[in-house]
């Protein structure tokens, strides 16, 4: 689980083809480490919905 005292990382959206309602191209999102997402070659970010 993500801890507040961990270092924070950020990513930039460069393609929102699969998630146009959730992600904006060129927007910066906070990255959250997630082993399940990594297993599926994906990442987890905090979007506008905060989920």
If you compute it from the alpha carbons, what radius of gyration comes out, rounded to the nearest whole angstrom? 11 Å
Q: What is the string of helix and strand elements?
A: EEHE
Instruction: State the end-to-end CA separation.
Output: 13 Å
How many strands? 3
The neighbouring-strand order within the major sheet is 1-2-3
Inertia-based shape? globular
Q: Tell me what portion of residues adopts beta-strand conformation.
A: 15-25%
- The secondary structure category is mainly beta
Contiguous runs where pLDDT drops below 50 for at least 5 residues? none
- Proportion of residues in helical segments: under 10%
* Most strands sheet: 3 strands, antiparallel
> How many helices does DSSP assign?
1
Q: Would you tell me the overall average pLDDT? A: 89
Number of domains: 1
Which helices and strands appear, and what pairs or packs with what?
Elements: E1 9-12, E2 28-32, H1 35-39, E3 44-46
Antiparallel strand pairs: 1-2, 2-3
Structure commentary:
This protein is mainly beta and 51 residues long. Helices cover 10% and strands 24% of the residues. It has one domain (10-46). The chain contains 1 helix and 3 strands; from the N terminus they run E-E-H-E. The radius of gyration is 11 Å and the shape is globular. The model has no long low-confidence stretch (mean pLDDT 89).
């Amino acid at each position: 689980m993500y801890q507040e005292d961990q270092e924070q990382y950020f990513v930039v959206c460069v393609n929102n083809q699969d998630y146009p309602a959730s992600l904006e191209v060129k927007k910066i999102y906070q990255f959250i480490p997630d082993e399940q997402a990594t297993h599926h070659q994906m990442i987890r970010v905090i979007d506008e919905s905060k989920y």
